[in-house]
Design goal:
78 residues; alpha+beta; Translation Initiation Factor IF3; 4 strands; globular
């Protein structure tokens, strides 16, 4: 099964902490249930996104790990 994202944010070659603000703004523009795909090569991204999702109530649906970067899928919950 492949996940279909409504929007994508490419954070490769960027520290994930700064784009978290952009992530919030992007999710605000989406409908409940839609999926946001995030591309990141930051080794701390998974930990940061999991912590952020617990604080905000959104769900990290899946993570596809690749050698050069990871793809994170976050579902808007509210």
């Amino acid at each position: 099964m492949s996940i279909v994202a409504s929007k994508q944010l490419d954070y490769r070659n960027k520290d994930i902490l700064v784009p978290i603000l952009i992530l919030r703004k992007t999710l605000c523009s989406m409908r409940v249930g839609e999926i946001l795909e995030i591309l990141s090569d930051d080794p701390a991204a998974e930990m940061e996104l999991n912590a952020w999702s617990k604080l905000t109530g959104h769900t990290v649906v899946d993570v596809y790990r690749r050698e050069d970067f990871n793809r994170y899928f976050i579902q808007k919950e509210r």
